[in-house]
Every structure is written in structure tokens, then in C-alpha cells.
Amino acid sequence: MSIAMASCGRFSGLCSGVRVIQKQPFSSHGAFRCSFAMDPFRRICILPNRLGFNASTLVPKASSATVEDKSFSETAEIPTPKVILDLDSDPDATVVEVTFGDRLGALLDTMNALKNLGLNVAKANVYLDSSGKHNKFAITKASTGKKIEDPELLEAIRLTIINNMLEYHPESSSQLAMGEAFGVLRPHKKVDVDIATHVHVYNDSPERSLLCVETVDRPGLIVDLVKAIADINVDVESGEFDTEGLLAKAKFHVSYKGKALIKPLQQVLENSLRYFLRRPTTEEASF
Fold first, then answer.
1. Which residue ranges in the chain fall short of pLDDT 70?
2. pLDDT of residue 95
3. How far is CA 147 from each of CA 2, 112, 114, 119, 128, rounded to the nearest angstrom?
4. Residue 122: per-residue pLDDT
């Protein structure tokens, strides 16, 4: 099963207010064979109190008729929000799972917002365990009926879900990286990216290896990770991307020319991603 993330013309920059990070070239390699098929000048934008794409793809605002449940005591302990994008478990659809303790309702507004991205939402179900209520549903692209394999669209899905969570459950902002800029409550603790970043590659089979990444969450991270992997000619075949509070965790099945990564290439990939994720950001205005 191939996720088509590596063949991309250019990837979107991020803008916040007057700050704009211009897009960088995105090389084309191997197994991620889908194209973003998007305007190369379009940017992913972060707007005050609203996460979204401008121009042709907007992160939709949920309808004003709120059906998400917000009736919780302000003194109650705030659970860790989780958003999982799973491209492994279902060959025909991208599986999305959203958890926020037992505070989430039926997520009808969130599902409607996803439909506004041009997606079909099906197979919705809910299950309970000790960590809370898990809302799980399968999504496909409405125009093709196929699973979502476009990194930019996957990132739009993730931001849409987080955006609705911030709107209907503003207390979640204290547990989300996006809450630093757009939430009612800022995160109570800062996460050191050097300490929080872990990258490991394991042998999975003769045909592929398993790349595991954990780091501090930020907007655009899915696209950035895929680009960084593709830049060293490594192909991503399938994966899962989890947002867990202030952290992001990714698991990608990777290969090089149809084979598992040899030890020297594993080391190159690990070192490259550690440097990429830990490097300090520099304001454009400083030049």
C-alpha cells in the first residue's frame, strides 16, 4: 500500500500575521508517488483565532449550530487531546481517531467541516476505554473515493480537527501546541524540542524499515517531515501521524530502492531528521 507523499512540486510555507516562511523546493522520489496538485504559490496560513488555508482550500469553520458538548467544570483536570491519522489499518480509507477524555460529543460539526474539504466521512463509531471516549471514522476523497494520500490535505484535516476542538473545547488549548498562539489558555509548560525529539529506524522486513519520530508539534509538520525524508532519497510507503497534546508522533514504513534501509542509511536518516527538527528557527526579518 503506497501513500503518495513524495512526489511533490512545492510545499506550502506558513504565515502568521506579517511573518511568512516562503515555500521550499520539494524533490520527487519513489514510493510517495502522488502529487500535491496544488497551486505552488498557495500557503498554509495561520490566522488569529482561526487555523486555515487561504485561497482554494480553506480550513472550514464549523457551523454556528453547536452540537459539540461543552458542559464541563472549569476545575476538572484537562485530559490530553489526541488526533490520529492512520493510513495503515484500512487499505481503502484514511482512518481518523479523535480523543479528549470523555468530553467530546458526536463531532457532527467536525465531520461537516471535513466534508467541506471535499471528503467523504463514513464508518463513524465510538468506543470507550480507560483513556476516554474515542471517536473513530474513515474518510476518503469525494472526487475519487480513495483514501487520502496528499500530505497537504492530511495536514489540512489535522488542523481542521484541532481548530474545531479549540473552538468547542477552549480548555483544550492548554494541552495543545496550537494553543500557544490561538487558544484561550496557553500551555502550562514549555517543551524543550531538543529533549522531546527522538528519531529511530528499526528493521521491519527485507523490503522496508520502520521510522519512528517524536517531537514537539507545530503546524505543517506532516508536510515538513515528508519533504525531509524525500530529500535524502528515502521512500515512504505508509504511515501514521499522531498528535498527542504538545507532542507529535509519526511512524513511517520507509525503503530505499524497494529494500529496507541498510545501517549507514538508517544513521543518515536519523541524523538528518534530528538536525531538521531540532534546528533553531530564524525570523525572516533578522536578515
1. 1-75, 280-287
2. 96
3. 11, 18, 14, 10, 26
4. 86
152 burial (CB, 10 Å; 0-12 / 13-18 / 19+) is buried
Supply the mean pLDDT for the chain: 77
Query: Comparing C-alpha atoms, which of 236, 205, 214 is closest to residue 88?
Result: 236
